[in-house]
Amino acid sequence: MRIYISGKISNVPQDNLPKFEAAECRLRFIYGPGSELVIPHRLPHYHDKKWHSFMKVDLRHMLACNQVVVLDDWKKSKGAISEVLIADLVRIPITTLKGREIVRVPLGFWNKLGLLLKVLLNLI
To answer: Across the chain, where does the E strand assignment appear?
Structure first.
């Protein structure tokens, strides 16, 4: 099982790494040590450090995963919204942590449309 963790990174202290690491610990407890957890911060980013360059690397790794787990702030991030919409398009399950459980993120037509407009109109 390869799981990608998605959430807000830009304009957050420490690039939100503590929240990603807390989710990693919870997921390791739920799925056991055999699962591979992918955190964007730890991916090799040997490029010009522009947003679109980070996204190219992150998306390539996300597409190789069996599941995407979103943090509670994912709807405040253009990158995380883009990851979720693409994961949904290629039928990668999108989930979130609720207490000690993993639950599916409901993405109906209107939700997707709202998220897409948010990204396209730069409302984030």
So the answer is: 2-6, 36-38, 67-70, 94-98, 101-104
